[in-house]
Amino acid sequence: MAASLKPEEIESFRRLLVDLDDRLRGNVDRMTDEALRRNQNEASTNLSNVPLHMADVGTENYDQEFTLGLIENEQETLKLIGEALGRVRDGHYGRCLECEQPVARARLEALPYTRYCIECARKLENPE
After folding, report:
1. What's the Rg (C-alpha) of the chain?
2. Do residues 83 and 22 make contact, with C-beta atoms less than 8 angstroms apart?
3. What letter would DSSP give residue 102?
4. Under DSSP, is residue 52 helix (H, G, I), strand (E, B) or coil?
């Protein structure tokens, strides 16, 4: 059974969440700028009548899809971080949303934005 967090521990996790939020927002902004710049460069550089090699087009499409997938994943993580910061403000941080028991400190250190204790996370991932 995990113990409830002390106020100074909650503050430490709040700072960690804010730092993580800032870093991920910067990553998303850079990836978005890169994807947009890549599209602008493609539109402006293909002014000649020389056809593009299909492998080049495939690589560009793959790179763009990969970048968009990363952006989507990081946006989902940003959403979870925002929810965790809301739980900090509401005084519910560190408690499982499913069973309302304290989440183990080790789990919070690994995933500070987690919503569930390990037992409930396993149950939700593998309902039997």
Report:
1. 21
2. no
3. B
4. coil
pLDDT tens digit at each of 128 positions of the chain: 566 899 999 999 999 999 999 999 998 888 877 777 765 555 445 444 455 667 766 777 787 788 788 888 999 999 999 999 999 999 999 999 999 999 999 999 999 999 999 999 999 998 77
Are 32 and 71 in contact by the 8 Å Cβ rule? The answer is: yes
- Could you tell me which of 27, 124, 33, 30 has the C-alpha nearest to residue 78? 27
Phi-psi region of 86 (alpha: psi -120 to 50; beta: other; left: phi over 0): alpha
Q: pTM of the entire structure?
A: 0.75
61's tokens:
């499409």
